[in-house]
Write a structure and sequence with these properties.
alpha+beta, 6-stranded antiparallel sheet, two-stranded antiparallel ribbon, 5 helices, globular
């Protein structure tokens, strides 16, 4: 179904185990009826769930994941997830996930799991200075403010209907844009140079377990 489970992350990631290292999707979602393929993020998420289900050591956590989309996914048929246990070591485990539909590979991933370690090296960027999420508008607040603004009157009716449908549709994440203007495409003649980055607070709208 196109919208089944979309407002519930747990349902969107649910898999049925068919055999050792073999799983099948319970539902697949397309962003809209006009979309040509299944939402890629759901395939990635389900692949990670399948890979994680084959790692027995609870002390190993996802360290990296490399994804390769090979064909568009079809939401009218289940996706099959085949996990290969490449290696299990003391500090690392590696899994290869192959996703197929109708005998064709649509996606592959390599997933590495690592035991948590402490060290003196740190590679991530510093946390930027941004407003706390409690001071920012929610996704739906921004959409509604857009519909109530004079700018919306300059947009095609189809776009206004699309924004309205986004407000009414269930959504599994709570998102707060530090710059709300980045949610929308600028009107012709109003484009301005922007830094190639976005700053967004986000969290799930429901409580999830660790796996």
């Amino acid at each position: 179904q196109e919208s089944e489970g979309w407002g519930d992350i747990s349902a969107a990631l649910q898999l049925e185990r068919l055999d050792i290292n073999v799983y099948r999707s319970c539902n697949l979602w397309k962003p809209s009826p006009e979309s040509r393929a299944v939402f890629g993020g759901q395939i990635i998420g389900q692949s990670l769930v399948a890979a994680s289900a084959t790692v027995d050591d609870p002390g190993l956590w996802v360290n990296s994941m490399h994804s390769y989309f090979l064909r568009p996914g079809d939401n009218s048929t289940p996706a099959m997830y085949y996990v290969r246990r490449v290696r299990d070591g003391h500090s690392f485990s590696t899994r290869h996930v192959c996703v197929q539909q109708r005998g064709h590979v649509i996606y592959e991933a390599m997933v590495s799991f690592q035991r948590e370690e402490t060290g003196s090296l740190s590679y991530q960027d510093e946390m930027p200075r941004v407003p706390p999420p409690g001071e920012l508008l929610s996704r739906n607040d921004i959409y509604q403010a857009f519909l109530n603004s004079p700018r919306a009157a300059k947009m095609p009716e189809a776009l206004r209907q699309f924004v309205d449908s986004r407000i009414k549709a269930p959504f599994p994440l709570e998102m707060r844009w530090c710059d709300p203007h980045q949610m929308f495409i600028p009107l012709p003649g109003s484009r301005r140079a922007r830094e190639p980055q976005q700053k967004i607070w986000l969290r799930t709208s429901q409580t999830l377990d660790d796996h």
